[in-house]
Each structure stands twice: as C-alpha cells, then as structure tokens.
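We emphasize that the prediction below concerns an isolated chain of 97 residues; any contacts that depend on oligomerization or on bound cofactors are therefore not represented. The input was used exactly as deposited, without trimming of termini.
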Amino acid sequence: MKMTDLLYIYDFINSRDANSRRVSFTKELYGYTYSWKTKSGVKVKRKVGLLEECPGSRIIADSTIIVPVEHRTLFDELFSRYQDIMNLHVFRVEKEV
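Result of the prediction step, given as a token string:
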C-alpha cells in the first residue's frame, strides 16, 4: 500500500469571533492579489499560497483540499497554527474509485 495523497477537511469554529485569523489562514492557504497606486499607475502583485507552492495540491470543494504526502509537514504546520479556530480531519487517500 503506497500513501500518495492526504485529504484535509476543515471547518471554522465561530468564524465571526476570529474573523481576522480566518482571513489570515485563507490568505496563507490560497494566496491573494494586492494592488497599490504609483505615479505611473496601479501596480498589481500576486502572493502565492501554500496550495500553489506545493505541486499536486488542489482544491476539492469548499474547505476540502487534497495534498501529496510529501507536502504534509508544510500543511500540518499551517493548520496547527490555526487549530484554535478550526476543526480539522485528515484522511489518507488510498485510491480513487
């Protein structure tokens, strides 16, 4: 049996109480685009998220992502920093039916 992917399912607890932390988590996971004005016009830049940094990671549904096992440490670190505001379940995916 070869472990190839992990399924992360998460849900925020009382998301309105920890709105700023929820937004920070979402930005770290999915990335974000920001812009600023300069004399020559508006500049736009993209800050990549963990999903973009780790090849093979992808969004499955709302609050559900699939991650190759070799990137587990990075995702576990991210989720552990926000464990006080969310419930997390991680499953090993053995095969897709």
